[in-house]
Amino acid sequence: MSQLTSSKKSFSAAILNWYDAHARELPWRSRPGEHADPYHVWLSEIMLQQTTVVTVGPYFNKFLTFWPTIHDMADAPLDDILTAWAGLGYYARARNLHKCAITISREFDGKFPKDRDELLSLPGVGPYTAAAISAIAFDRAEVVVDGNIERIISRLYRIDTPLPAAKKEITAFASELTPKSHAGDYAQALMDIGATICTPRTPSCAACPVSRFCAARRVGDMERFPVKAPKKVKPTRRAVVFWLERPDGFVLLRRREEKGLLGGMMEFPSTEWREEEIAVEAAMKRFFSDELQMRADCVTEKSLVRHTFTHFHLELRPVVITVGALDAAVIPRGQWVKPENFSSFALPTLMTKVVRAVVKGQG
What we know:
The protein is of the alpha+beta class. Helix content is 43%, strand content 12%. It has helices at 3-6, 8-22, 38-48, 53-66, 70-75, 78-85, 92-107, 116-120, 127-138, 147-156, 167-177, 183-196, 215-219, 280-287, 290-295, 349-360, and strands at residues 236-245, 251-255, 266-267, 296-301, 305-308, 313-323, 334-337. Strands 1, 4, 5 and 6 form a four-stranded mixed beta sheet that branches. It has a three-stranded antiparallel beta sheet with strand order 3-2-7, with no helix packed on it. The longest helix is centred in the first third of the chain and has 16 residues, at 92-107. The termini are far apart.
């Protein structure tokens, strides 16, 4: 048994004492020792996945303004949720947020279950989120391990196993250190320490309340942890995206299928995203009927739009096509929209880049 494991009570006490004095004030967080609102904890945890605290703050406040309770969110149309979410990315989270709200409202009478296993049955709630809600909202002694806590634990024990393979080992050590009471405050304290003190670069070890327990600090190689496996090279996919504009200025948008990347969001029609290049003329022949091609009065290419997703890079070549009177039904799930009204629709960041490339000439 390591010195740290044998002194875990001193460790957790130091963490909690630090939190009492230094806890960050966040819109969704209760004060140390006070009970948190499960709705707020759940909403913030879903938003914070793959997103920073600074980015999430305004979105969290906006959502609470629109939907103060879980029942309000459950009653809202999915499109309203997606529109409010636009810009946060990873849109499956928004779809699952809505599904989860409906489940909680209708099957649990608006009350979140306290048990981790029950929480895991909810749409969009994985092991980390379930543990976080159970610990923070209900003070259950759950082991909460986010990216900040992974970094702290890996430095405390100098864990040489690269991530993501090290997750099981990190969770085991984290479990040994998690106190039986005040687990929510303890988890949030570690998150704060990871965000403000035990940072990826130049950690402020002198300000850390548990630096005396840290093996990496004793050796002086804190920045080496957590060890990460070499990144895989991301492939680049390409497509032609079509800005179809009528003489009256209306532009055609279409809704993506509910499933998959950007599911349920609005987009400008495009060819499939593939690694192979496709010429504009070939893209038009493949995508449009002969009738629509004949109605294309003017075709103009715009600057390339680049965007990066988790697993691949994307390059979109916008093509502005002026068309005469055209039924939106020519494109499945299509509708005509004035550009000044784009903000009223669930338009993802990728598509706002297309707008900039077309309207402002910025790729």
